[in-house]
Every structure is written in structure tokens, then in C-alpha cells.
Amino acid sequence: MTSTRDPHSFAKPDEVVVTHLHLDVTVDFEKQQLGGTATLTLNNKTGSNKLFLDTRDLTIERVTLGKEGPETPSLLGDVVQFLGQALTIDITPQTKEVTIAYHTNPNAAALQWLEPSQTAGGKKPYLFTQSQAILARTWVPCQDGPGVRMTYSARVKTRSDLMAVMSATNPTVKTEDGVYEFSMPQPIPSYLLALAVGDLAFKSTGPRSGVYAEPSMVDKAAWELEDTEKMIEAAESLYGPYRWDRYDVIVLPPSFPFGGMENPRLTFATPTILAGDRSLVSLVAHELAHSWSGNLVTNATWNDFWLNEGFTVYFEHRIMEQVYGRTYAEMLAQLSMQDLQATINDLGSTHPDTHLKLNLGGRDPDEGMTDIAYNKGYFFLRLIEEAVGREKWDAFLKSYFDAFAFKTMTTEGFISYLRENLIRGNKNLEEKIPIDRWVSGPGLPEGAPEVRSGEFGRVEEQLNAWKNGAVAGTLATKDWTTHHWLHFLRNLPSELSPEQMADLDEAFGFSRSGNSEILAAWFPHVIAHSYQPGYTALEKFLMGVGRRKFLKALYTKLAETPEGLERARQIYRKARPGYHSVSYSTIDAILKWEQR
Predict the structure, then answer these.
(1) Boundaries of every domain in the chain
(2) Which among 287, 309, 316, 321 is annotated as catalytic?
(3) Radius of gyration in angstroms for the set of CA atoms belonging to the chain, rounded to a whole number
(4) From the candidates 180, 239, 374, 531, which is the catalytic residue?
(5) Most-buried pick from 20, 71, 533, 575 (CB within 10 A)?
(6) What is the pLDDT of residues 479-538, one digit of tens each?
(7) Catalytic: 287?
(8) Rounded to the nearest 5 degrees, what angle is found at the Cα of 366, between the Cα atoms of 57 and 81?
(9) CA gap 39, 352 in Å, rounded
(10) Is the pTM of this model over 0.85?
(11) What is the fold, at CATH topology level, of the domain defined by 1-188?
């Protein structure tokens, strides 16, 4: 693909590009910093005498040419909001490597340092990273844009009672000296750099899959993720071989800000997926699907984010259909449509952020990571599937992943490939697939695929019976999954009496649920109706979960009234220290929070 200017990077990879990174760092829990060296292997395409890198809040101690060569001048540029500072290094046209000695800031946005009390074990500290979208630069000096791919290796030293794992080859037992060596031979973009350090145990879930978690959680996590190998096999049967050797999952402490992060070889996952009934494992299918869409073929810039996420939601639903059946997958699809419509309503149907192709220049790219990329992208691809037939569409997608494996893709490049290799001048297909309206237009275009789950028809029957006076405990809900309950909760009447709230809660135990998705769908009703028995559970949830999707919705709901805003701020004052920067940056804006 032709290169595209990345508005979120100071790097100039058209001139000099980083092809390999070797990290040699020590994890210091007392100082809450990583310190050591980053050695970058260079391809100087133009004979340039300058290398431009991305940094943010890094202390650069010195820069040398080669591993132990002479020191060379370097300069940190002015601070730019969201982007940090450019690091400009003097090189020669012959320079093959530079080594940067540096250390991180204790408040580095990618890094979350957890006290022992914030872990399941309660006795040892924990560290994890979150590099997407442009936070890798807060812990590694690099060319921090999705359009630059590099291989990497690392040596990480930590306490001898802790284990380090990365998005690379990984240990399954602790070393005696706390030193770990890593290798990632497949080239990846910087946002997939990942490190976690803690009291970890490993349990296998198949010949090339397993789960890491704190010792007290590892058995539960392995049971929940037992079908991982089936998912890998289903994915391979659809779109070709898995190319990353192993697929492991690490279940992180609750403060992890996302459901999952598709770090290659080692998906980072929230503990909120551990529902106890394997009902939330579609998240694993989603992160696994990224091994093709995103990790293998990567959006060139964050303006093209839908190429990662829309494809991945589509692929996730196909994996779930293959493993659990069409009926199950259609429930997921209908929930996706509900999420999409809610996001469009929140943003406004003509808002430019409801386009698939975004314009995020001058903004934090994190602002573009909404349901639009995920679910509007999904329904656009589903529309294409329905227009051309599944057999043709699957063959096209497989060829797409093969043709652009380990490369980047722009929206324009994908559209061109689509027209050349699938539509092929067929005017009838062009009319069925109005590309410009979907990609460059706002809202949800007319003619979007219709999704109607028969399972949700059963839910609506019971919901209507309850609305007509049936006692909640008499409803036929015995075999309902999480998805049935979500549809039920999302479609409750907007006005509910205290008696109705109590009837529902007594019958179904919503406030006592151990399922995070059900709790997150119940609490907006608690807030809207000032249902006092639910507030204790709400506060406990906000104190104990760091997943931004949940926090954003609930704090926004609380902030709708003066009383709710005051309650939200009281909770947030206590909860904020346990949130990752990705989450608290969002909630700070919602609550107009000023650090005191």
C-alpha cells in the first residue's frame, strides 16, 4: 500500500523507518517506572541524517549510535496535546541502529501500577500496559503509528516473585531471578506492544492456547475459556491459518479499561468476562478475530479504525455462529444493532463521527473508538455478504487477508480492492452496496441488514406479560442466557414504579448479579428511578470495575441530575485512583473533574 501521512505521529517513516525494537528494561515497583534501553534497527530509505520518533512523558538520558557506539545529539520538541514530544536524533546515512537510554514517568498514561490491595491475591503488586491508540510512546520511544510495523525482542527484569509476560513468546512458569526474554518474530505496529507483570499462573486450554491469571483465578478463567481452541479452529476454517503460533489470554485485574485488547499471542482481557456460565466469551472470539483483521491487516491510520473493528465484529459473529449456532449469533447481531442505534442517537444522526472514515486530525484518536467503527462497520460488511452471497464473500475476505498479510490498509485502498475483486463493474451490485453512503456518509443508511432474533421474540412475550400485570417470578426465563437478559433490560418501560423495580429485583436478583453486563444494563434503571436498594451495588460496581464502556455509561447517567452528579463525584473521588488513564480521562470530562 502507498504510505499515508499519520496525523497522530511525529515520525517520518517514509525517510527512516524502524524495522526492529530490542527492549532491555527493569521494572521498578517502588519508583513506579520502567528504565533501561531501547535499541532500534533502522532502514534509512532516503539517506537522511535525522530520525524522528514519538515520545510522551519520557526522560531521555542519552542516545548512542549502535548498541554501544558514540553518543549522538538528540532533541525533544515542544509538547503537543495528546501527541507528546517529537524526539529528533542525529544519525548518518550509514546508521543501522540507535540505542536510547531512558525511563518512564510514574504517571505514564499506558502504564497502570497496582498496589497489592488492587489485585485478587492482595499481597503482590501488578503492572500492565495499554498502548492503543497512541500510548506506546509513553513507555517506549518508537514510531507510534499503526502504519509502521516492526519485529521486537525484549529482556525484562522484575522481582523474583513475579512473572513478566508480553505480546510475544512467553514463559509459563516463574524464573528464579526475575529475568525474562521475549521474541516477537512477526512484524507488529507499536500499539500492539504489551507488558504485564504480576503474580501469575498459567493453565492450558488446548495445544496452542492457554490462560494466565492470578493463582486464585486461573482455574475459573481456564474453565470459562475452555472453548478457545474450538474458536481458533472455526476461525481458521473461515479465513485461513492462524499465523501467530500461540493464542493465549491473560485475565487482568478489574482496572483494565477495555473488554479486551488483541495483543498478538496474548490477548489482555477484563475479569468481567468471567460470568461463570461462559456467556460472555464472544469477547474472546472478537480478540481472536483480530489476529486476522487488525493484527494481520492493519488500519493505516486511526482515521481508518473501522477496517480493524468492523471486520473483527463481522468475523467474531461468524466464529460464534460456527461454534454456537446461527440462533446464538443472531442474538449478538441484534444487540449490535441496538448498540449502534444508541450511539447514533447520542452523537446525532448527521454527526461526522458517525462516518466510517473519520477525520481525527488535531484530536485524541481515542475519541474515534466508538460503536460506529465496530457495529456500523459490521453491518456494512454484512450488507456486502447478503448482496453477493456468503460463498463469494468468504472467498473474497480470505484473499484479502492473504494479499495484505502483515501490511497496512487505508479505507480508500480497501474500497479499490473491493471494487476490483468483488464488484467488478457490476452496476446492480453497486446499487445494492452504496459504498459512499456507508463509508463517507453519516448515520445508518437506508437498506441496512435487518436482524430479528427469534430468541428475542420469546423475551418480548415475557416482557409483555409482565407489563400486563404478571408477577416477575412467574415469567418463563429458566433457560435465558446473558443476551436474553440484556434484551429484556434494554426494553423495560422508561417509567417504572418502586414496586415494579422491587418485583424485578426480588425475582431475578439483578442488584446481586455477578454478571457485569447484566449489572451494567440494570443500573441505568436504578439511577433513573432512584431505586435505593440498588445504589449500594452500583457504588460497589463503580469502585470495583475499570472497564470504560461500563463506567462511561453509568457516570453519564448519574450526571443527568444535580443529585446524581453529586453522588457520582462522591463515588469517583474514591474510585478514580483505581482506574487506568484511558478510563479516567473520559470520566474526568463527563464529571468536569478537576484534580485537587
Answers:
(1) 1-188, 297-440, 459-591
(2) 287
(3) 24
(4) 374
(5) 575
(6) 999 999 999 999 999 999 999 999 999 999 999 999 999 999 999 999 999 999 999 999
(7) yes
(8) 40
(9) 41
(10) yes
(11) Immunoglobulin-like (2.60.40)
